[in-house]
Amino acid sequence: MKSSKKTNRAKNRKLTMISFLPAIIWLILLLVLSSQNGPQTAATSLPMAEWIQQHFFPQDSVDYVHMYLRKWAHFIVYFIESGLLVLAMKNVMKAWKAACAVFGLCTILAIADEAHKVLIVGRHCQWDEAGINIVGVIMGVLLTWSILWLIRWARGTLED
């Protein structure tokens, strides 16, 4: 009996560690993109902005589309990171506690990420972008937590 408990605990620990893998990989991508210098980040985002402008907004300038693409990128990156972290952390704590923890952690990360850009050539800290990051965090946490709640509600396991 004790052996099966140890085996189950080891399996659960392994599954929990694996559940954090997507969030860790996404965080690494976030940090790599955030650490690019000015010319590198423009080389990454400008071709996308040109393609979007040509196919969806031909009446607008590429610079205009590029500016909005970069703002949306802040939202999307933190939206995804916070959602992935809620999914991972719900395995170690209740979903609502995971949501609160992720909100706090990702908010600190969003502010620190923006602040560290003053150290990178060709980049600068913009507090409105930190705000966009935080809105992405809020939306990612709320959507993921809501989906988890709906799944539990549909299964009839809200009391667990």
Nearest-integer average pLDDT:
90
The number of distinct helices, counting runs of at least 4 residues, comes to 5
Structural class: mainly alpha
Shape: elongated
- What helical percentage do the residues reach? over 70%
List low-pLDDT spans: none
Topology:
Blueprint lengths: L1 H33 L3 H19 L5 H28 L5 H21 L11 H29 L5
Helix pairs in contact: 1-3, 2-3, 3-4, 3-5, 4-5
Short descriptors:
160 residues, elongated, 81% helix, mainly alpha
Question: What features would you describe in this structure?
Answer:
This protein has 160 residues and is mainly alpha-helical. Helices cover 81% and strands 0% of the residues. It is built from 5 helices and no strands. Helix 3 packs across helix 5. The longest helix has 33 residues. The protein is elongated. The mean pLDDT is 90.
In a few lines, what is going on in this structure?
81% of the residues lie in helices and 0% in strands. By secondary structure, it is mainly alpha-helical.
